[in-house]
């Protein structure tokens, strides 16, 4: 199985075009592909589920279950996710089958509650940002000069993150995965 998570608002739809070209070029059989996308609104315009009543939010999702077969959730507090699951169960509506949450070596907050809750309730976990916007895929010097997330000086990278990035870099070098370009990965 091959899984791609995309959206028409990632790179203004270019990501979906690239995936389409790859499927065609490599003649990938559709029955071996899992394609994930967003269908409510552009990422920047998602409704704030913190203020929308759970029943209203879950009732809206019914039409997407009928159209696509399943629904998943993304990036919310564990208690909110639990309340939405309880609401769906109470009304006989489809429950979320997946939680897409931020998760990387530099961001492990979800281990406290969300990952455990999902494991206990048999909800699939789909991490987003596993390379921490590329910070875990290149040397600390390269991160400091190319990070598009704000201040790019080496001092702007949190100490704990820098320590983890250094450990990943050391591991990559020990395994022979460090490229002269400053990027990690196998050839």
TrEMBL record:
<dbReference type="Pfam" id="PF00248">
    <property type="entry name" value="Aldo_ket_red"/>
</dbReference>
<keyword id="KW-0521">NADP</keyword>
<feature type="domain" description="NADP-dependent oxidoreductase">
    <location>
        <begin position="4"/>
        <end position="45"/>
    </location>
</feature>
<feature type="domain" description="NADP-dependent oxidoreductase">
    <location>
        <begin position="53"/>
        <end position="140"/>
    </location>
</feature>
<dbReference type="InterPro" id="IPR023210">
    <property type="entry name" value="NADP_OxRdtase_dom"/>
</dbReference>
<dbReference type="GO" id="GO:0016491">
    <property type="term" value="F:oxidoreductase activity"/>
</dbReference>
<dbReference type="InterPro" id="IPR050523">
    <property type="entry name" value="AKR_Detox_Biosynth"/>
</dbReference>
<dbReference type="InterPro" id="IPR036812">
    <property type="entry name" value="NAD(P)_OxRdtase_dom_sf"/>
</dbReference>
<comment type="similarity">
    <text>Belongs to the aldo/keto reductase family. Aldo/keto reductase 2 subfamily.</text>
</comment>
<keyword id="KW-0560">Oxidoreductase</keyword>
<protein>
    <submittedName>
        <fullName>Versiconal hemiacetal acetate reductase</fullName>
    </submittedName>
</protein>
């Amino acid at each position: 199985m091959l899984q791609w998570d995309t959206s028409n608002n990632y790179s203004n739809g270019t990501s979906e075009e690239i995936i389409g070209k790859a499927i065609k070029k490599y003649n990938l059989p559709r029955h071996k592909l899992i394609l994930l996308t967003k269908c409510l609104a552009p990422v920047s315009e998602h409704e704030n589920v913190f203020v929308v009543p759970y029943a209203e939010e879950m009732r809206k999702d019914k039409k997407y279950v009928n159209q696509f077969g399943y629904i998943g959730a993304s990036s919310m507090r564990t208690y909110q996710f639990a309340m939405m699951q309880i609401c769906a169960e109470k009304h006989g509506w489809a429950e979320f089958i997946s939680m897409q949450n931020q998760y990387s070596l530099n961001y492990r907050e979800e281990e406290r509650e969300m990952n455990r809750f999902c494991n206990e309730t048999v909800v699939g976990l789909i991490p987003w940002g596993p390379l921490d916007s590329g910070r875990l895929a290149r040397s600390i010097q390269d991160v400091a000069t190319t990070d598009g997330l704000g201040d790019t000086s080496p001092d702007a990278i949190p100490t704990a993150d820098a320590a983890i990035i250094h450990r990943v870099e050391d591991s990559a070098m020990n395994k022979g995965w460090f490229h002269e370009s400053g990027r990690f990965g196998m050839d």
